[in-house]
Amino acid sequence: MKINMPVTQREIELADDDLIVSRTDLKGQIVYVNPDFIRISGFTEDELIGQSHNIVRHPDMPVEAFEDLWRDLQKGRPWSGMVKNRCKNGDHYWVEAHATPMIENGKVTGYMSARRKVSAAKVKEAEAAYALFRSGKAGALRIINGRVRSSGIGARLASGLKDLSLATRAAMAATLVLVVILGLGSWYVRDRAGQALEGQGLAVVSDKVSLVKAMVASKAQSLKLETERLNDMFAAGFGDGFSVNAVGEGMPVLSHGGVALNLRSQEVDRFTASSGAVATLFARKGDDFYRVATSLKKENGERAVGTMLAHDHPAYAKLMAGERYVGKALLFGIDTYTGYSPIKDAAGKVIGATFVGRRFSDELAALKQQIKSVRFGDSGYAYALDSTPGKSFGTLTVHPAKEGQNIADAKDADGRLFIREILERKQGVIHYPWLNTELNDTVPREKVVVFEAFPEWNWVIAGGTYMDEFESVSRSIGFMLLSMALVAALVLALLIFVLMRSLVARPLQAMVQTAQNVANGNYANVIDAGRNDEVGRVLQALESMQVKLCADIVEQKRVSDENSRIRQALDCVETNVRIAEPGGRVIYANTALLKTIRAIESEIRKDAPGFSADSFVGSSIGRLYADPDAALKRLAALTQTTRTQMSIGGRTFDVVTSPIVNASGERLGSVGEWRDRTDELAAEKEVQALVGAAAEGDLAARLVVEGKEGFFRDLSIGLNHLMEGMAGNLEDIARVLNAIARGDLTEKITADYGGTFGQLKDDTNTTVERLREVVGQIKEASESINVAAQEISAGNADLSSRTEEQASSLEETASSMEQLNATVKQNADNARQAKELAGSSNEVAEQGGA
């Protein structure tokens, strides 16, 4: 039986509404577990599916319980019983398990089990009973149909009665009522005689077994003393003075009196020649004992040197403790009594060991012959079984006919491994039905075996005989007395049988067929529920159950159709959606999410090696996070809708996660919506860069259109068109202003623009036209002023000349000069004003860009 460890002996108490459900295939491998199973056991679904159901088996459960379970299931019948299961962390929980075969089209396709909470009183009762089985003290107790019962005759009869039809049992009951009075006396006589004979017989068998054990013990003691004597004699041949050199990588060297004994055969061969016993010297190195010299030879004639004494050898621990070991062994196929004694140095440290082996095959053969001669009754005999763990476990070491055969897996007529039970219990009495085909038996006969252990040789000595040898006389007496009562009851029994078969058995048989039809999903059965007796009430209840189940199926179909509609609707939406169990296992992902996952599958594998989009549904959602455990803890603690951002596979998602709960607030799982914002975030960055460049005066930047789809492509095209329009308009305005700055008032904006850009075009062209008109007017005014100034300048020159020529007449013309000076002053003012006007014209021209 598989031993699951560790165990903590901490009990997990189930809630009243906990229901643990699982299904297995015909080999017992798990194919389905419900959430309660996962939550309570602590295993994940991935750890359970495909595993043998014994993954939750607790070491405290006796193997007999599971043998009984599988025995019933393989017979096609349900099983119920108390089970102690182990959690992943070593805790445990008690349940009342109900297992049943799953039948489809008349064939068993697997097994289903449902387990519920059990009361503390039942747990205490089961613990006490199972402890008896684990300790080998169950005696006649057996686990049958999930219940601990006695294996006595009464229990077997009760079990057999349960398999009979109601009509048969009713007839038998009526017969017993009539027979009981007459039968009491005969039964009492038979019972007393049977008990006396059985007790006497068992006492004889027990005495014989004790006798055989005493014979074996006597021989073992004799051999032990002889072996110890030989071992002392072999060691005495050396005396003190042993030393060992264990330096280096090779074998240690054992020396005596300065002489290396490794591979020397003189001493060991001399001892063998004088005593007839083989001898070996061991040298110790570290925790190992090496055979350095021996007279023991293998089957091929080579000496058995250079090997180490196995650490699991019973002598090893004794030698390490500085003690002697003596015991029976099989050396190269020869029965040998062996003795090991430690070799110690002057400081008392064990540095090696001496070994002697006394072959006692002939003596053992004589002992076996003595045991075989022990007989009791007509067919009783003694035998011995090897209880040494391993291949020899269950081998008949002594038997009148089957000596040397391994019968560990022998089963009685009921399929019970009674030999294993004997070997495990080691001492006691066992009863079992035995069908001896070698004696041409056609029916099983009950056998009784008394057995005792002889630990020194790992033997279980047993003696057995058929119970009928004890009961034959009492059975004859009882038969004669009971036959009279049986004859009187036959007629009444037959009548009752017919009535019960007609009134009860046949309706119940029809009821069984109806129940099987209902179990297979057929709810169209016609049930005659017109009777009002007990059978009728059962039929009425069956009819009610059929109607209720039919209504439940209709409701389940409605819910299933509703779920299908929801699933199909989710598969059609473009939003990425997934649904997970409370433990984080993904149970659904819509088409959009699976498409997204497949698109970035190779990128996800960089962070989660082995990830597969095909296995995403059914895997843990935690695999997509850097810290899966922390992510699952956050998911488990989720109580309301939460928005987060997640980056996987080079993509950025806004994730909206919401818990899913039922009407009673029980957590059923979670739903997550993933919105891919990767393109949106990239577009935001591009737009920010574009706007920033425009703010800096760079109107040449453009958004990349290639690789974009939908809204982001339209946005990029629109912004690029806007930038192109702005750049063209501003370039035209800059060109015209540049021309105005150079004094060129002939440039205009000729390109077509709409809206505000069109208004800018018209205003710019109008400004150029107006500047051209103003500059023309200024030019004409300037030319007129220049002509007037030239005329004034010429008049002044002429006046000056005449003044020089007519100096003599200055006095005469003084008054005229004053008038002339006033005129000149006025002309100078006019020239200054003309100059200022020309300067103002230049400023206007500069401001207009002329």
TrEMBL record:
Task: Give the matching PROSITE patterns.
Answer: CHEMOTAXIS_TRANSDUC_2, HAMP, PAS
Checking CDD domains in the record gives: HAMP, PAS, PDC2_MCP_like
Indicate the segments forming the Methyl-accepting transducer domain, all copies: 781-850
Residue stretches of biased makeup (Polar residues) = 806-819
Q: Which domain of life is it from?
A: Bacteria
Instruction: Give GO terms: molecular function aspect only.
Output: ATP binding; kinase activity; transmembrane signaling receptor activity
**What sections of the protein cross the membrane?**
166-189, 477-499
Tell me the ranges covered by the PAS domain, including all copies: 25-60
Instruction: List, alphabetically, the GO terms of the cellular component aspect.
Output: plasma membrane
Query: A Pfam family this protein belongs to?
Result: Cache_3-Cache_2
Tagged with keyword Kinase = yes
Assigned keywords, A-Z = ATP-binding, Kinase, Membrane, Methylation, Nucleotide-binding, Phosphoprotein, Transducer, Transferase, Transmembrane, Transmembrane helix, Two-component regulatory system
Into which family does the record put it? Belongs to the methyl-accepting chemotaxis (MCP) protein family.
Q: Which PANTHER family match?
A: METHYL-ACCEPTING CHEMOTAXIS PROTEIN I-RELATED, PROTEIN ICFG
Q: What is the name listed in the Swiss-Prot or TrEMBL entry for this protein?
A: PAS domain S-box protein
